[in-house]
Every structure is written in C-alpha cells, then in structure tokens.
Amino acid sequence: MKSVDYPIYDVDRHFYEPPEAFLRNLPKQFRKEFQYVEVNGRTKLAVGGVISDYIPNPTFEVVAAPGSHEKWYRGDNPEGLSLREMGGEPVPGDKAFFDGAEHIKVMDEQGIHAGLFIPTLASVIEERLSHKPEAIGALIGSMNRWLVQDCGLARENRLFPVGMINLFDVDKACEELDFLLENGARVVGIRPGPVAGIKGGRAIGSEEFDPFWKKVNDSKIFVMLHVSDSGYDKIYQWWTAGGKGEFRPFEKDAFSEVLDWMGRAISDSLASLICHGVFDRFPDVRVASLENGSAWLKPLLGRLEMAYKKMPKQFKQDPVESFRKHVFISPFYEDPVAELIEVVGSNRILFGSDWPHPEGLTSPLDFFKDIEDLNEEQTKQIMHSNLKGLLEGVRD
What we know:
The chain is of the alpha/beta class. It has a single domain, classed as Metal-dependent hydrolases (TIM Barrel), CATH 3.20.20. 38% of the residues lie in helices and 13% in strands. It has 17 helices and 13 strands. The protein has helices at 20-23, 70-73, 83-87, 100-110, 125-128, 133-150, 170-182, 210-219, 233-239, 254-259, 261-275, 278-281, 297-310, 319-326, 337-344, 367-370, 376-391; strands spanning 9-14, 34-39, 42-47, 50-52, 62-63, 91-92, 114-118, 159-161, 163-164, 187-189, 222-226, 287-290, 327-329. The protein has a 5-stranded parallel beta sheet with strand order 9-10-11-12-13. A hairpin with a 2-residue loop joins strand 3 (42-47) and strand 4. Helix 7 packs parallel to helix 8.
C-alpha cells in the first residue's frame, strides 16, 4: 500500500439489509408487498406478490466473497468462465456486512477513515413496485428509520449511511428528506432513472420536483445516484421478445452487457438534471454518480456540447461546464482514471471500493495501484479531499 499522511474517504461501501430493515417500521397495509417466503426449503423474496430472484439469497446468510468478481470486471477471463464460476464458493455473512459498529472495525483494519454506507437489497423495490408507489415510499421510509435506529446517519463522524428517497410524490419526498436531515444526513440517494408516474415516467430534472431539489440546495447535502435496477432491462426485453424474465444483475450475456443498462440510466438521469435546468435553478446542488463507471461520460458530454451548439437558447449556461461544476464520479477500478481527469478534472473524482460486494475490491486500498500514474495532488483529491468536502457541505 502507498504511504500517505491523510485519512482515506471511501464513497462506496455497502451493507446487506436484514429483514427487519424493511419490516420493523413498515405499516401493516404494506406488509403483503414485501415478504420473505419459503420456496423449496430456501428463503426467497416476494415483492408485490411475485417471487424475485434479483437477489438470490435475500437474507444474505451466505454471500459472494468481497472482491471475488474482480478478474471478471478487469476482463481477465481467458477460460470464458461464468461470473458465478469465477466467484468461487460463497462465504458466511459477516457482522460487518450488517452492523455499523462492526463495519467501522473493518474500516480500521483496511485503513479507511470514513465512508458512505449504502443499501443493497433496497435496489429491488422501485422497479418491481412502480405500479404501487405508496408501497415504495413505505418500504424506503421503513428502511430509513431502521438506519436511524440501528446505526445513525453519521456514526462517529466516520460512517455515513445513505437514506433513500423516491420522488413519486414530491410532498412526501420532501417530508422524508426533512426526516433524514433532522437525523443528521449528509447525503441521500435517489435511483438513476425516470420517476414512475400514472401516465409513465417523469424526468428527475422536471420542475415538478423543484421542492425536493430546493431542500437539497439549501441544506448543502449531496445526492447519490448509485447503480440500481433502473428498469433499463426493458431495452433488452424489447430486442429479445420478452428477454430472459426478471432482470438479474449477476446473470450475464454479451448482448445485454453491450446494451449498457447501467451507463444509459446514469447518462439519461444526469442529462435530465442539466437539460431541465436543475443546476441553473439550484446552483448549490451537487450529485455523485456511484458504481456506474465512466464509459458513458465522453459520449454524454459530446451530445451535450452538440445540443448547446444547435439549441443555445435552451440552456442558461454551457451544459458541459455545468456538468463539471455539479457532478462527481466514482469510476470503476478498471477505468482509465488519468483519462477521466482530462475530461472532468481530478477535483470531481471519488474513490469507491464497493466493499463488501463481490464486484468491488477485496482490499480497498489496492485502488492506489490503479492510480499510481497520478501526481500526489490528484491522488489526495480522489482518495481524501473530494468526498470530505462533499460531506462537509463545501462548494467550489
């Protein structure tokens, strides 16, 4: 490990939610929408009355080992093994995967000073209950209250759990944001993708959602847009006459991988924030793209640049410069970070380990090896200053 004289900030750490995270505070009328059921001797999740295999083992009693998929994501698979084969044998769920205090102990062992603490199973909710938005709000609200009760939202000023918000009903979204702010939130998360609506999706940058963005702006917290099931598997299904059934992120085929369900969702979401003027109306809003990689970045900026040339009156400021001012990116470890710096600057890049997920790094500080070509100032910004500033509400 590289020797540094500053504390490391990790923007992408995860917890695995136990059943009580969703059930403890869930009103009775919504209990049927999220059930843990036995199927052939195994516990499965039923969302909206439908058995889901999105997360094959929703109790997380055993999980894929942290970092066990790294070779796959680095493209180091000459034998053509499946992702499951490359991952090896699962490991028992560790206390640090569920509990904030135990997680901090592991952070100490890993040399991590502070980090976000991001839910995992919550990403199953919004797409599968898009026709029942009140249930979405109830489940997310239940999880947020469990987080406050069992961990706190700024534990020891080192671990920062991320409360999630659904924008379907902007008034309720603002109430949920107020609850999180009152309990010390430094960051909140929304799913990248359109907001469900009775007549179809709605853009997250629409003026309809301005009350939410104003509260974010005034509080100077930041918003996390972490990869999720954003519904973009519909594109695959569109091309394949119904596809393979339910979207399962760890079941890969070449065509679905190339269609880029991940990059399209974050690119479109950021395009909405810029083209629909959120950053013009609320100049202190900052958003962070987490675990979406960066392959989508140059094409998006190119499209924004050309749109500005074609329709300059539809923008109050240069959209590319707006992106560089308001958007932070956590690249994948396999991404060329030096090239990313040339596009957005080192002051907009965040280190994220994705620990303890299998697609992350077994040892988070191995990321230093992937950025060893950067200078000391750039390295410190990525590993320390940028996230520290966001958590402290610094605006530059």
